[in-house]
Design goal:
Layout: H1 7-17, E1 23-28, H2 36-49, E2 54-59, H3 66-70, H4 78-82, H5 88-91, E3 93-94, E4 100-103, H6 116-129, E5 135-140, H7 146-154, E6 157-162, H8 166-182, E7 187-195, H9 198-215, E8 219-227, H10 230-237, H11 242-245, H12 250-264, H13 275-290
Parallel strand pairs: 1-5, 1-6, 2-4, 2-5, 6-7, 7-8
Antiparallel strand pairs: 3-4
The structure holds adenosine-5'-triphosphate (ATP) and magnesium ion (MG).
């Protein structure tokens, strides 16, 4: 009987015996252009450089996508997997240091319209990746769409990127408000991006916590202050990330430190840490929201 074990059963058995869990981190921020994609990729490449198996889910429907920033050519995306036209493995794009990108960009509007068979297929697809991925980083689009909310509540950690602009603070506040009041997310890791000094980053964080502490039941932690750094723009032009193009630049050092910190964020000990449960959470709650 053992000889006839199929791939699903084999991977299920491996999951029972392997202690590996995938850490899922969603990077968001409310406002556009605050640096979400740069923070996501900076963390991802830093982790990959250290030999971690890292995957980036590009859930950004905007123009400055992960593939564009890395100069990668993307064909099919997650919507083709959902439609049953190909497997998850077929759409993965290889980035630097073995980093893998899951393009979800065009056409992947939400997960509400899937049939039960498509749900099951998607869960199985991610489940099979489980033992091969240490960290899954999700780069989200600007705004507070269903997609952004789904990925935030399904992740173990939510990173909120802010910069020193009034609209960034108000948009981040609006996002934290809806996630904490309506989606059960209570912990947020804040990255102050494009700051001119550590002090400016702290002040920015204080501005945000002043309102969240007063009005919301949310716990915020300042996890990084990333300096405003011309090298970031220069790297974007080279279609590289700053941690790769200029590893000693101040922004690169801050992103690397953030990546190291994130690797130490605790993982859930329960089986719910597995990727397939992440996808299940995405789908189940989305369905509920769509009713
Ligand atoms: N620390 C930084 N220093 C200087 N420039 C930065 C920094 N972080 C990001 N930028 C620049 O800001 C711009 C927006 O960055 P990015 O694309 O990462 O933002 P985003 O939040 O992902 O935007 P979108 O909402 O459009 O997806 C880019 O041109 C990038 O080069
Ligand atoms: Mg982006």
């Amino acid at each position: 009987m053992i000889e006839t074990m199929n791939h699903d059963q084999a991977s299920g058995l491996r999951r029972l015996t392997t202690p590996r869990r995938t850490k899922v981190i969603t990077v968001t921020g409310g406002k556009g252009g605050v640096g979400k994609t740069n923070v996501t990729l900076g963390m991802a490449v830093s982790m990959a450089k250290q030999g971690k198996k890292v995957m980036v889910l590009d859930a950004d429907l905007g123009l400055a996508n992960v593939d564009v920033l890395l100069g990668l050519r993307v064909g099919r995306n997650l919507s083709h997997v959902m439609a049953g036209e190909c497997d998850l493995e077929d759409i993965l794009v290889e980035g630097p240091y073995g980093l893998k990108i899951i393009p979800a960009s065009s056409g992947t509007k939400g997960m509400t319209d899937l049939s039960p068979a498509q749900h099951a297929g998607l869960i199985r697809a991610f489940g099979m990746l489980d033992e091969d991925v240490d960290v899954l980083l999700v780069d989200t689009a600007a705004g507070i769409s269903d997609m952004v909310l789904s990925f935030s509540r399904a992740a173990q950690d939510v990173v909120v990127v802010v910069c020193d602009e009034p609209t960034s603070i108000t948009d981040a506040y609006a996002l934290i408000k809806i996630l904490s009041r309506e989606h059960g997310v209570s912990r947020f890791k804040v990255v102050a991006n494009m700051v001119r000094s550590y002090r400016e980053g702290r002040d920015l964080f204080t501005k945000l916590t002043r309102v969240t502490e007063r009005f919301l039941n949310a716990n915020l932690e300042l996890v990084a202050c990333v300096p405003l750094d011309e090298r970031v723009r220069q790297s974007v032009k080279k279609q590289k990330v700053v941690v790769d193009a200029f590893p000693q630049a101040p922004s690169a050092l801050a992103l690397k430190a953030l990546a190291n910190k994130a690797l130490c964020w605790p993982l859930p000990r329960t089986p719910s840490g597995h990727l397939e449960f992440f996808v299940e959470r995405l789908l189940i709650r989305d369905q509920a929201a769509g009713e």
